[in-house]
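User: Can you predict the 3D structure for this chain?
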Amino acid sequence: MTTRVLLCCGAGFSSGFLAQKARQAAKAQNLDMTIDARSESVISEYMDKMDVLLVGPHYESALPKFKSECEPLGIKVALIPTDIYSGLNGEKLVQLVQQLLNGKEN
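Assistant: Here is the predicted structure, written as C-alpha cells:
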C-alpha cells in the first residue's frame, strides 16, 4: 500500500525541493511512497489524499491546528526538523516518515 506524504509550507516552493529529494530517496530504497508539497492554505483540500502531513519549521505555530484537523482522520502530523528542511535532506525525511508510521515520535 502506498504511503501518501504531504509537505506543507508557505507557498509550497521550498518544501517542493525537499519533496523531490525525498521522492528520490524513497525510490532508491524501493519504498512505495508518494511525496508532494503544497501551500498551507490548501491543506484542507488534501485530507483524503494523505497519510502523513509534515509541516515546515516556520509553520510550527500552525502545528496544533493541523493536528486537531488531521489526527482524528488517522493522519500522522509532525514538524519537519530544521536541519532536514534547510539541508533538503530527503533521506532523513523518509526516515522521519517511517518513524511516524511505526509510532515513534521525535
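The chain is about 40% helix and 20% strand. Residues 3-101 form a domain with the Rossmann fold fold (CATH 3.40.50.2300).
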